[in-house]
Fold:
Amino acid sequence: MEYRRLVEIYDRLDATSSTLEKTDILADAFVDAGELLPEFTQLARGRLFASWENDDLGVSSSLTAQAIANATGIDSDQIESWWRETGDLGDAAANAIENRTQTTLVSDTLEIQTVYTTLRGLAEYEGSGSQKRRIDDIANLLADAQPDEARYIVRTIVGAMRLGVGEGTIRDAIATAFFDGSDEATRAVERAYEVTNDFQIVSETAREQGRDGLDALDVELFRPVKAMLAQKAEDVADALEAIEQPLLEYKYDGMRTKIHIKGDEIRVFTRRLEDVTTQFPDIVAAVHEEIDAESAIIEAEVVVYHPETGSPIPFQEFSKRIKRKNDIEELAEEYPATVHVFDLLYHDGEPLVDTPLSERVERLEGLINHDGETKTIQRAENLRPASIEQAESFYADALEAGQEGLIVKNLNAPYQPGSRVGYMLKVKPMMEPLDLVVVQAKWSEGRKSDWLGRLRLACWDAEREELREVGRMFSGLTDAELREITAKLEPLIQSVDGRTAKLRPEVVIEVEYEEIQESTTYDSGYALRFPRFGGFRDDLGPENADRFERVERLYEEQ
Ligand code: AMP
Structure:
């Protein structure tokens, strides 16, 4: 099928802001997709991989811009300038094709399959020369593309489709295409997606096997599902009030993992579904020795403790283990992991997501073949509290042990992948907000491309008499806030590099955050975790911003 057919669908999706209309357009497309249904379900959202697959193409926006230049003979500066004007590299690509100075003699009609497999193939290149091969592959595709085809190919590559098609729209479209679109059918499709994490499987099963097939889909080994997310509780009392049969567990500050086990085959996935098995030979070895199960999916928080102080080391430090490609064994010895296990989603052939937590943890505890405190696999510290006092004191213990707080879980609840449904609540101390200076900003992308966002923040070092950066605030701003920030920051622009503007440091904002971490990215040596905009401090000048010493002290105290 020609890629042009897909472009027509994209254009129609783009032309309406109504979610209902988008759903209908997609439902029709799915019915007509024939053997390309799996590709259609992915490409409809501009995705090339299922959510559980590693989806890193290894292609940056600038690399793509380079490929556009190579394919069209248009100067990179011109492409940059279009990109900067529209905030959309896809539009820049369409312009470049429109104005191209070089054309291939025989240009092929682009097929959906060709675009799909070529782009997926980009992820597979490894080692030296892989960047060049990626640029060449993209340039070859673009050489055969019409302007509107190039627009969507490039948006797909850079992951910015902007068609307003989210997971919910795909779910509704499948429910409409192959069932009656009722709430009940939609819920069935949603459940199938939660347990498979793969719309290709869901859409094909819906079409080929109907409701029975769909309902039979479940969690499978080596196909990671999303993590269940926690909602926030004010304090311990608030959490206990919300949950009738509570199980309290320490909230560990580490890396959330799912460990899949089948006989001797063990694989470790992160919360973002990345496969990090090779990086953690110590976890694999410990699972072999300390877990008795034919097959299982175990969920755990992995923490590295400082050998002398016994405190958890900052995540940033520990994440070196995730990125490292060499000396993995040495690093494992230097930073040995402790695996605090807390859930069981699959056991000896049986998916357990619909089983109550009480039974899941009981079975989980039965899999650990030791009760040694120095072993790698540890059941997460937990308590079924008899009183609020007991719960409060358990919370104090968690903080005393250097952990983040508590997770309060509902013993009667199933496992709900990817959702904040209130089956677990987190309780942790709030950090005091900081007043920080905005020193740099970036123009946003897409619909918001006229607005400055992505603020780089700094505190004031009174001793050195200079500003020191403590991180970046990426999101969480409303349109009204973005507009106001832009109006305040634009007059302060000192210089522009691409889409980044360096600012005279005059605007101070209040910033809330969850934690301060050590960081090598910012010159203060610290970074705020999950910073949120708390309001303007028009009453403060940069020299009244929070001091570096305060950031240091808060870091020590947390
Ligand atoms: P947050 O990231 O602040 O939304 O808090 C939820 C995160 O706490 C989860 O994603 C886990 O990575 C982590 N966590 C730590 N300890 C536990 C535990 N005992 N049970 C569940 N999640 C935990």
User: Anything to note?
Assistant: The longest strand covers residues 337-347.
